[in-house]
From TrEMBL:
Keyword annotations of the record: Hydrolase
Protein name: Alpha/beta hydrolase
Originating organism: Streptomyces nojiriensis
Entry-linked SUPFAM superfamilies: alpha/beta-Hydrolases
Pfam families in the record: Abhydrolase_1
UniProt GO molecular function: hydrolase activity
Source superkingdom: Bacteria
Domain AB hydrolase-1: start-end pairs: 40-136
Gene3D superfamilies: alpha/beta hydrolase (3.40.50.1820)
Length: 287
């Protein structure tokens, strides 16, 4: 039976069988349902420092995207599409709530959120789309450049593995882990074998899902207007304006006729500044 609340003391871990995969997800807190959809290789554990600052206000749902960590694919060698990711979001939310939910998506998660708005009108009451990796939001040469950089990272990864791909990812997203500022006391996120496997899946399989996706960028905006869904385009305060995902957020805001909202930090600010990110989410979602 769907519920809008879970214990605030500890996360409840569950699995859900969906077409082509079994999803791992976690539920914690009380209040309106807020789904966090992560960037890059991030799974449900990526937000370990963020979730505790939200559970006093929201029922927070985190999950491993299909193909990452504990969300296993029926066919590990098969493709994954953005439409499948969006449908997974709809099925997860149907498990935990009877009404429209809140969603905060970061990078890949933001692109999935926009897909979910278009494919499942009324599923979300509010979507915060932070620097979506969605080339279709851009026009002309900008779109071509964004597609080319994703393909180039795939090529570098295929030739030299993760050690070769990391510098390219950092360059294209403006991320420098050795110099970027963070809040104090963060949980270490070592490069474990599981995380390495997630990176490989993200680059090798999910980049292809992004570059081959044909979603009309006007689709989510039209669907949101019909269903009464609020979409908030968001950028990182320190993300370089030349970064394509930053420009995707600007393009989304332009389509919405709004100004983008700034979040702490850069492209990965939600993990670098979890306390400040939680406060920003509470302010935006409390309006």
């Amino acid at each position: 039976m769907p519920t809008n609340a879970a214990s605030a003391a500890a996360a409840v871990t569950r699995t859900l069988a969906v077409p082509g995969a079994t999803l791992h997800f976690q539920v914690a807190g009380r209040g309106p349902v807020l789904l966090l959809s992560q960037s890059g290789e991030g799974d449900a554990d990526r937000t370990v420092d963020l979730v505790p600052h939200l559970t006093d206000t929201f029922t927070v749902v985190t999950y491993d995207r299909r193909g990452l960590s504990r969300s296993t694919l029926d066919d590990p060698a098969g493709p994954v599409t953005m439409a499948e990711h969006a449908d997974d979001v709809a099925r997860l939310l149907a498990e935990v709530t009877d009404g429209p939910a809140l969603m905060a998506g970061f990078s890949m998660g933001a692109a999935i959120g926009l897909q979910a708005v278009a494919r499942h009108p009324g599923l979300l009451s509010t979507l915060i789309a932070h620097e979506p990796v969605m080339p279709n939001l851009l026009a002309g040469a900008d779109r071509a450049e964004h597609l080319a950089e994703l393909t180039a990272i795939q090529d570098v990864h295929a030739a030299g593995g993760l050690p070769a791909a990391f510098p390219a990812i950092a360059r294209h997203l403006g991320i420098d882990p050795s110099h970027d500022e963070t809040e104090d006391g963060l949980t270490p996120q070592p490069m474990t074998p599981r995380r390495q496997a997630n990176f490989g899946f993200f680059i090798g399989t999910e980049f292809t899902a992004v570059t081959t996706d044909a979603l009309d960028p006007a689709g989510p905006v039209r669907a949101a207007a019909r269903a009464g869904t609020r979409i908030i385009a968001a950028t990182g305060r320190t993300t370089r304006p030349t970064v394509h995902t930053y420009r995707c957020a600007l393009a989304l805001a332009e389509r919405l006729g709004t100004e983008p909202v700034e979040f702490p930090g850069g492209h990965n600010g939600n993990t670098a500044f979890p306390r400040a990110t939680a406060q920003t989410l509470k302010t935006l979602l409390g309006r």
